[in-house]
Specification:
Length: about 260
């Protein structure tokens, strides 16, 4: 099993990082993709601690739409920040998470779009896949992916909560769909119905920890070991053994991120 999207360099894990990593390994999690905010030196330093404890982790670096406003005066500066950090991070494998969030609108939408486009161009230049955050912004996200070479670089829609149309169009672009603990929530029946239509050769598993702990851990801090609950849910939905889901989704991860 692989946790394809986690925030292990977050402050939430400062006190017990070693125990968190030990639990992940004990649960059979073979690796993870740790998401880093471009230019966040605290996260960068903590990521080095994560890698020392768990050499099989890799990282993605990007400017999240929530903080895009920091680059409102010069969206290209976001690209420069990520480029510089990428160059000094040997374990970097993807640009992300990047994208659009029209739910919280923490940054002006036009700034989000400009910063997103700049980072897509960087991904094309680096020939690296992208990790996409999209919330209530499906049309604009897909448009930018099409216009900025998403089909060429490939990537994943992380923590997928969209409908069938978003899934279909992302798959047409060659993207993967990543499923998080939300899929275990009782009220997520619609999401489960959509995910059930996606073949396992296009699915990744994630926790998005420390957020979105799956059932039966809801309300607690999430961590990579809990990705096993996502695997179990997918196995039940597809009526296959959990081991098969683990193997196939791990294979997808390695294909996309070439770790």
């Amino acid at each position: 099993m692989i946790d394809s999207h986690c925030h292990l360099a977050d402050e939430a894990f400062i006190e017990d990082l070693e125990a968190v990593v030990a639990r992940a390994k004990a649960a059979g999690i073979e690796g993870a993709l740790v998401i880093l905010e471009g230019g966040n030196e605290g996260e960068r330093a903590r990521a080095e601690q994560v890698e020392a404890l768990w050499p099989d982790v890799r990282v993605a670096i990007g400017v999240h739409p929530h903080v895009a406003h920091q680059f409102a005066d010069d969206p290209g500066r976001a690209e420069a920040v990520v480029r510089e950090q990428f160059a000094r991070t040997p374990s970097a494998r993807a640009v992300g998470e990047i994208g659009l969030d029209y739910h919280y609108d923490s940054s002006p939408r036009e700034v989000q779009r400009a910063v997103f486009r700049c980072q897509m161009r960087l991904a094309r230049e680096l020939r690296r896949p992208v990790v996409i955050h999209t919330r209530e912004a499906d049309e604009d996200t897909l448009q930018i992916l099409r216009e900025e070479g998403g089909r060429d670089v490939g990537g994943v829609l992380h923590c997928f909560t969209g409908g069938a149309t978003l899934a279909e169009q992302a798959l047409e672009l060659g993207f993967y769909i990543s499923v998080a603990g939300i899929i275990t929530f009782p009220k997520a029946q619609g999401l489960r119905e959509t995910v059930r239509t996606i073949t396992l050769d296009r699915v990744l598993t994630e926790t998005d920890c420390p957020f979105l702990a799956p059932v039966p851990y809801r309300g607690q801090r999430n961590e990579p070991a809990h990705v096993a609950k996502v695997v179990d849910m997918l196995a039940g939905m597809h009526q296959v053994d959990a081991r098969e889901v683990a193997v196939r989704t791990a294979r997808n991860f390695h294909t996309l991120f070439r770790p």
